[in-house]
Amino acid sequence: MVAVAWRSLLPVIIISTFIVYEEWVSFPSCKLLPNTTFNLDEHVGNDDDSPEDLKVMLVANLLLRGTEAGFFDLYFRYYYMSKFFKKSFQSLNPDMLLVLGDVSAKGSELSRSTWLSVLHQFNHILGPFLDLPLHVILGDRDVGECSGLDANSVNWITSNFPGLDSSGCGAFEISNISFVSLNAVALLCGNNKLLFDVEKVIERESVDLQMEIKGTDEAKNESAMFRELSYGFSWRENAMTSGSGPVLLLHFPLYQSGNSYKREVSTFKSTIDPSGHDPASAESRGFLGTGPYGLSQTVPPNATEYIFHALKPRYGYRNESNDDRIIFSAHTHEFSDHTHLDGTREVTVPAMSWTVRDDPGFIIATFRGNRSTDLPDQCGTKDKDQRKQQ
Fold it and tell me: What are 29's strand-pairing partners?
């Protein structure tokens, strides 16, 4: 009789265990950088939080397939991604969501009707985040490589995402924090209309910043002063102080000099070395291909220098003695925390997809009302942390 009773209860036990595990694995677990862990409940209820603070969730590389999604995508990867977004929203209570490119797995190859199915899938997965301020930038999988970069196609794609102009760039301010997003794919191109449009955006934002800082007349007088670079970029002589510019958002990481500094963060499996190569990339694990550009691709050195000079990315302060200028990028599928030679800190956001990682994740950054920034927390599935502790 006892054996019969246990057999009858076994399906209930299995289903209950699965439900508990499903809830557990879809609840985000976060770690402070560089090496400090924290309790998520304490972090969410932090008394130091101010109504003026801006808590931003940054994700990248969702790699959605739309109508081309297979059974495993629909009933496992996208299902758990949707739950992960929902649990993250409920537990972390962010004020804004930033998506740093590669919404689509191969958007550059898709017809517009298939792209619409990707967008529908994207909206379904975001769930409650659709009620928050949302900004999406373009990745190489979304628009393709330089040789096939079409301005009309890019314009159509950008028209479906809030806050992007026809070139794939955007600029906005929320809670007195300025953000600028650039079409990093166009920055890889030579004589391309989109590249010239991106340059115009950078110059316009640089002029606007100087007008705010130095006064309208003086900034306008300086706007005619340009310095030529050997690679064809030009910039105005810029008297802004370092760190006075916006938070910069890109899909490709900026070029990293071999002499620049990379923080060693023991809580994560891999980072990018100074040459830009990822030792534990999705390619080496046999996952989905990299798309038009390899995972080591960065913004060219000349364009990187141009951006640093023109935009002076914003300062963030983690404590009284450690200050950073902050840029967020993606593309590599892996987390990286890098400091450039001029002191600018660049955080690379990991992939939010089970297609290329067995531990998808995201970044949380809190921008304080006093222009300081808590930088950043990396969050992911709980089973990732469990494996790393073993």
Answer: 380
Q: At 230, give phi and psi (nearest 5°).
A: -65, -20
Kindly report, residue by residue over 71-102, the tens digit of the pLDDT.
888 888 898 889 889 888 988 999 999 999 99
- Nearest 10 degrees: CA dihedral of 88, 91, 92, 93? 100
Task: Name residue, tokens 């297979």.
Answer: 70
CA dihedral for 280, 284, 288, 292, sign (positive or negative): positive
Strand 170-174 and strand 177-181: pairing?
Answer: antiparallel
Angle formed by the axes of helices 112-126 and 78-92, nearest 10°: 40
CA pair distance 233, 199, nearest whole angstrom:
8
Mean pLDDT score, 287-294: 68
Q: Where are the domains positioned within the chain?
A: 53-389
What are the two backbone dihedrals, phi and then psi, of residue 250, each rounded to the nearest 5 degrees? -140, 155
Q: How far apart are CA 187 and CA 175, in angstroms?
A: 29
Longest dimension (CA), the chain: 93
Q: What's the CA gap between 314 and 44, in Å, rounded? A: 25
- Round to whole Å and give the CA distance between 326 and 367: 11
Task: Dig out the tokens for 5 from the structure.
Answer: 């009773």
Supply the pTM of this predicted model: 0.78
3 state SS of 156? helix
pLDDT of residue 142: 96
Q: Given phi > 0 = left and psi -120 to 50 = alpha, else beta, which region is 193?
A: alpha
Query: In which residue are the tokens 């301020």 written?
Result: 133
Q: Of 177, 172, 171, which is closest to residue 52 (Cα–Cα)? A: 177
Q: How far apart are CA 198 and CA 184, in angstroms?
A: 9
**Domain 53-389: which CATH class?**
alpha beta
Arithmetic mean of pLDDT, 209-213: 75
Asked if residue 95 lies in contact with residue 367, where contact means CB atoms within 8 angstroms, the answer is: no
Specify the length of the chain in residues. Answer: 390
For the stretch 318-354, pLDDT in tens is: 434 334 468 999 999 999 998 888 888 899 999 998 8
Least confident of 27-36, 134-143, 219-228, 273-282: 273-282
Concatenating the DSSP letter of every residue in 177-227 gives: EEEEE--TTGGG-SS-HHHHHHHHHHHHHHHHHHHHHH-HHHHHHHTT-EE
